[in-house]
Design brief:
This protein is 25% helix and 31% strand. By secondary structure, the protein is α+β, with helices and mostly antiparallel strands. Strands 1, 2, 3, 4, 5, 6, 7 and 8 form an 8-stranded antiparallel β-sheet that branches. It starts with 12 loop residues before the first helix and ends with a strand.
Length: 162
Amino acid sequence: MRGTAFAKGYSGTVYLDRLSKRWHIKLSPRRENDFNKRDRVPPVWISSGTAHPSDGSKMSIALVWSLAGELESLTCITDRNAPGYADFLRDCVELDHPDARPDAAASWLEQVKPSVDKAYAQAKRPVGSPLYRSGRAVSYLLEYNNGKEGMTYTVRVFGAPR
């Protein structure tokens, strides 16, 4: 799903530099993705990076900006066995876009994660949280089994029209 910009002129650079440095994730240079020039899908800038905080674990960040450089989407993926995975997820939902309420987003994650864990334990299939909305940002948490890599969480924060 394509997001919209969190705010006019907001690139997220300071926040993303802080996030990637804290978690030792080296982000790739931005590159254009034109979606194979499909009609009605405007091109975007993308970047991503992965770190391995311990043997057999990983944390990743994937980003999407409009061609104007405005951040549209942040996706954070972490293995449950990665050291500090809960703090990583919290840092991801605390995106500092205009109108952001980082404390409220962190509180939402803290409240929703146990219910997602419980639902996954019962269903044994991918489980997603209800959406959390703060200004133009929408977030959700997804838990799933990633095969040999084990249990994985994905937090996605994307811009949406008001």
